[in-house]
């Protein structure tokens, strides 16, 4: 099951290791189990990352107000520290994006064992893929 996802180039080995906990084989299809707790983790991960990004960007304000070497070092240090913490805190959101991509591709191939499952998390940026906007004739839905 995971091998098929990897061979179809839907995800790398590293990404598959992270989302494997949500995937379960059922006959020739794949069931995605993404419950309320996982959705709350994604919601926290996304908004905590956004808040940390704002904190990291706020380190630039003293640099804009009074340019100096000390303010430059402070701005770079604050931004780098925020990015490093975002890499850790935002891991669940990255896993969600990978899982959503895999779900989208498998749904297009009719390989989802539970097609009625909703993995979309309200209040979180969910990437839209070009296939979602195209109809069978190639025209954009309006």
What does this structure look like?
The protein contains 7 helices and 2 strands; from the N terminus they run H-H-E-E-H-H-H-H-H. With 142 residues, the chain is mostly helical. It has one domain. A hairpin with a 2-residue loop joins strand 1 and strand 2 (29-32). It is elongated and about 65 Å long.
Can you summarize this structure?
With 142 residues, this protein is mainly α. 59% of the residues lie in helices and 6% in strands. The chain is built from seven helices and two strands.
The percent range for strand residues is 5-15%
Largest sheet: 2 strands, antiparallel
Number of helices: 7
> What structural class do helix, strand and pairing data support?
mainly alpha
Summarize the helix and strand pattern as letters. HHEEHHHHH
Low-confidence stretches: none
Helix content: 55-70%
Globular, elongated, flat, extended or rod-shaped: what is the shape? Answer: elongated
Strand tally: 2
End-to-end C-alpha gap? 36 Å
Query: How confident is the prediction overall: mean pLDDT?
Result: 87
Radius of gyration: 20 Å
Strand order of the largest sheet: 1-2
What is the total domain count? Answer: 1
């Amino acid at each position: 099951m995971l091998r098929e996802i990897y061979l179809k180039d839907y995800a790398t080995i590293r990404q598959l290791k992270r989302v494997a906990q949500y995937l379960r084989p059922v006959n020739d299809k794949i069931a995605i189990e993404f419950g309320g707790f996982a959705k709350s983790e994604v919601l926290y991960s996304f908004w905590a990352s956004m808040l940390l990004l704002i904190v990291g960007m706020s380190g630039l304000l003293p640099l804009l107000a009074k340019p100096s070497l000390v303010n430059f070092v402070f701005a770079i240090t604050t931004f780098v520290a925020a990015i490093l913490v975002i890499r850790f805190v935002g891991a669940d959101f990255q896993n969600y994006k990978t899982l959503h991509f895999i779900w989208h591709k498998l749904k297009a191939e009719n390989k989802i064992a539970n097609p009625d499952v909703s993995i979309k998390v309200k209040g979180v940026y969910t990437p839209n893929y070009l296939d979602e906007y195209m109809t069978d004739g190639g025209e954009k839905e309006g």
